[in-house]
Amino acid sequence: MVIRRLRQAARRMCAVATVESVLMNIGEIARRAGVSRSTVSYALSGKRPVTGETRRRIQAVIDEIGYRPNAAARALKEGRTRTLGLVIPPANQRLTDMQLGFVASVVEAAARADLDVLLSPSGGDHDRSFERVVTGRRVDGVILMEIRLEDERVVRLRESGLPFVTIGHTANPYGTCWVDVDYPTLIARCVHHLADLGHRSLALVNRSAELLAIGYGPAHRALAGFTEAVAQRGLTGVELTCADDAAAGESCFEQLRDQHPDVTAVVTINEAALPGLQRGLERAGLVVPRDMSLAGVAARHWAEDFRPQLTAADIPTVEMGASAVDLLLERIAAPEAPARHLLLAPPVSLRASTGPAPR
Amino acid sequence: MVIRRLRQAARRMCAVATVESVLMNIGEIARRAGVSRSTVSYALSGKRPVTGETRRRIQAVIDEIGYRPNAAARALKEGRTRTLGLVIPPANQRLTDMQLGFVASVVEAAARADLDVLLSPSGGDHDRSFERVVTGRRVDGVILMEIRLEDERVVRLRESGLPFVTIGHTANPYGTCWVDVDYPTLIARCVHHLADLGHRSLALVNRSAELLAIGYGPAHRALAGFTEAVAQRGLTGVELTCADDAAAGESCFEQLRDQHPDVTAVVTINEAALPGLQRGLERAGLVVPRDMSLAGVAARHWAEDFRPQLTAADIPTVEMGASAVDLLLERIAAPEAPARHLLLAPPVSLRASTGPAPR
DNA sequence: TGCTTTCTGCGAATCGATTCGACGACTCGG
DNA sequence: CCGAGTCGTCGAATCGATTCGCAGAAAGCA
Fold first, then answer.
1. Same-domain status, B208 and B151
2. Where residue A284 sits, what CATH number does that domain have?
């Protein structure tokens, strides 16, 4: 008892020595307002009525010393953290613009709902950061992006019981909540558009061979959509992989020129390669769309930065991020409800990069 | 008493009904291992010796049911959250590549130290998200970026007593920890390099007029460094502002050609405008560096994507982000220690975009 | 054998907020 | 004027982990 009093005395001295705001818990508010801690809590939450006069006194004290409830204590008691986890690709690979768009819109949507976002830079493997987020009760739910057809993170999350939503979807689309772009349909629309313009020989500039190898969803689905649409229209199709940068785009184009000179139209989902394709076209003295047509799936600003502006389905990153947050909030509120999906197929915006096939 | 026992019974039923992993707190571990809660805690932290046999038994139980300590409870007791806050620009403006580089490297460096990162998308004004982070004890420290010469967020953080580090620095550099690039020096080096090559009339393509108006540090410091160096060498200098995108870069270049045709060299800190400058140069039929020299400050991949590759000081975003985390950890460990700074002046890499002035 | 010292492990207090039962002070109808 | 029902507030338990003081047991020494 003596010891405890000594410790309390020491703490009081410490409190005096440092900034006033160091000691501001609900008990201190209660003491200064002359009420009990529970009354302060009820005045703040409104879960039980509190007389106007009392509430005003409490509010005055709170405003005076700038009190905000301790997030950890609240999370402990309530069993929820008001925080969402967002798993992003590890930092060694630069985020693509699309990924960045998702991050920004998820963060924005979460902020609108007064939720914070905890970042976990995690690749496919078990990762300390990912494990912390999944298993440490640090977040109420998780948003996962860069989904592979077979994704062990999805398996891990499912067995953990933590609510989660993915941006992109695995080979088995059932039982999990996700938002995705309908790559096969969009690529098919591009192929049909080009076929309608008379093109007979098309190339697909896909994402990198590595991504394809690890089973990255968009790369596989774009490929599938391309081959099917090409077959359906009786065209010849060339499939190329290309790393996510301008230099790769340029060499990819050169390879195309060398090995498949008969190709008159290119379909791509690789935004980052666009500047390189542009350079390659210029160096080869080709004019778009007179000598070569281009179409694809890309973030709007990539399409608009291309010259001439690119015929493309603009990926609605903002809408997708916001929807992912909405779905996740639903799932957190009702974990047992059936999983919902959202498969978006934004229209292909006809811009200036596609035209009749050259003869 | 009866009521409490009823409630406990209800909880037990609930625990049986749901996934096993739902009930896994330190007490459960202790029960299964046949020891007390404190022993489990000591076995995990190693802060007091625990017999090998006991430790093994505890570890076995932990491995079996996959226990991880509850982050909120730990944060509450320890008074620290093992989380860093990162304040990023609000989502309505797209992050620049430099900003993205900072975010990625901060997250990466934090992950290496087993810390999580909480994102707060906050502009200059008081913002719910920012306030939550600063005042809710949700983080042990904060990293702030996009610093203005007078920045109220810095003021707010300083008076809150929360440790923080800024990437970029305010007009008064003392008393806070920061990491920054020495824009005046780098710009001056570019100017001197161009002056040595015989250029007499230079232009600075700065960031946007809006950023300059709100007192954005890099824009002001680049401007100051430019005017001083130009004056020192007796050159004529033109100052232009330019929004952060290719279209703006293109129109900025056109404005330059129209109004200042005597300019033979451009210095820029605006990476995002580079593709636009490139387009403008091509459309005007100018060859770099024969007709016009370019130099500046940019992330490496922007410089290398330029054709010809850009003479530029490459911003070490990875190093800066990592240093910011290091400084912040130091500051958290010793809040009263004198503030440290890091002002980086990476060398100007001579690439192919600068050459002798045309005659 | 008896006493001190070192090991181990336990019980209880603690962090800060929420929430539930209870209780005193009212009002109101009969 | 009295019992029933409301209203406002309080005290105490609780969330899950850490940590401090303390108590047996084992070991060392005389």
1. no
2. 3.40.50.2300
What does the pLDDT read at residue B10?
40
Q: Does A232 touch chain B (CB under 8 A)?
A: no
Give distance CA A211 / C1' C20 (Å). 55
Q: Same structural domain for residues B131 and B199? A: no
Residue B14 reports pLDDT greater than 70: no
Assigned domain for B340 exists: yes
Please give the mean pLDDT across all residues of chain B: 91
Instruction: Return the residue of B nearest to A93 by Cα.
Output: B104
Query: Do residues B208 and B170 both lie within one domain?
Result: no
CB pairs < 8 Å spanning A and B: 140
Q: Which of B50, B51, B44 is nearest to B74 (CA)?
A: B44
Q: Tell me: do B168 and B216 sit in the same domain.
A: no
Express as a percent the part of chain B with pLDDT over 70.
93
The predicted pLDDT at position B127 comes to: 83
Q: Is residue A189, in this structure, part of any structural domain at all?
A: yes
The residue among A2 and B193 whose pLDDT is bigger is B193
Chain A segment 295-324 residues within 8 A of B by beta carbon are: 301, 304-305, 307
Average pLDDT over residues B210-236: 97
Higher model confidence: residue A8 or residue B145? B145
* CA–CA dist B9, B15 (Å, integer): 10
Residue A216: strand pairing partners: A148
Asked if strand D comes closer than 7 Å to B76 Cβ, the answer is yes
| Strand D contact at CB of residue B135, distance < 7 A | no
Total structural domains within chain A: 3
Most B CBs within 10 A among A11, A93, A116, A126, hence the mutation to make, goes to A116
pLDDT band at B17 (very low <50, low <70, confident <90, very high): very low
Domain that holds residue A224: 183-316
Angle subtended at Cα A348 by Cα A346 and Cα A350, rounded to the nearest 5 degrees = 145
Alpha helices in A161-309 (DSSP H): 183-196, 209-213, 217-232, 246-259, 274-283, 300-305
Query: Which segments of chain A have a pLDDT < 70?
Result: 1-23, 124-126
pLDDT of residue A127: 83
Residues B297-353 have pLDDT tens digits of: 999 989 998 999 999 999 999 999 999 999 999 999 999 899 999 999 999 999 999
Instruction: Please tell me what DSSP assigns to residue B30.
Output: H
Per the CB < 8 A criterion, the answer to whether A294 and A333 are in contact is no
Q: How many CB atoms lie within 10 A of CB B94?
A: 18
Average pLDDT over residues B232-248: 96
CB-strand contact A25/D, under 7 Å: no
Q: Is A70 on the interface with B (CB under 8 A)?
A: yes
Q: How many beta carbons lie within 10 A of that of residue B247, not counting itself?
A: 15
Q: In angstroms, what separates the C-alpha of B114 from chain A's closest C-alpha? A: 7
Same domain, A311 and A322: no
Together in a domain, A279 and A334: no
**At B124, is the pLDDT very low, low, confident or very high (cuts 50, 70, 90)?**
low
Check whether residue B262 and residue B195 sit in a common domain: yes
pLDDT at B12 over 60: no
- In a domain? residue A354: no
Residue A181 to residue A324: CA distance in whole angstroms: 12
Mean pLDDT of B71-85: 96
Compute the C-alpha angle B7/B68/B117, nearest 5°: 115
Which residues in chain A have Cβ-Cβ distances shorter than 8 Å to B92? 108
CB atoms under 10 Å from CB of A182, counted, come to 17
Does residue B75 belong to any structural domain of this protein? no
Contacts of A76 in chain B (CB under 8 A): 70, 72-73, 76
B:246-265 residues touching chain A, CB 8 A cutoff: 246-247
